[in-house]
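[Meeting: bench + compute handoff]

Bench side (C.D.) handed over the final construct sequence. Compute side (W.E.) agreed to return the predicted structure before the next meeting so the bench team could plan truncations. Sequence as handed over:
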Amino acid sequence: METLAHPDDLSSMRKEQNAAILNRRPYKLLYRVCLDSDRRKWIWDQGECLYDEDGKPTYLEGIMIDISTRSCVNTNFCRKTRIYAGPWKIASGSVPLSEKQWDA
């Protein structure tokens, strides 16, 4: 998703996700994606990292929800209230991690 992430959101996304991986806790993200030069979507992303037997991060597992169609697109409102109501487009699954994707 990083390749589509809005440049202004990328740093905070990486910071939160890396902190969650290093502290072995779930993450919750709210960010914009750029589909092309004119279209943006708001994404609610939450998940957690899966680790191998040696404790090495191997996969991120979770869901990404397109909340663009909701009236809750105001960033400050969403971050403060954490209220998200459908209809949503939902994607879920696992993404393999490489060592380049997280800070040890």
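W.E. noted at the follow-up: Residues 80-90 have pLDDT under 50 and may be disordered. C.D. will use this when planning the next construct.
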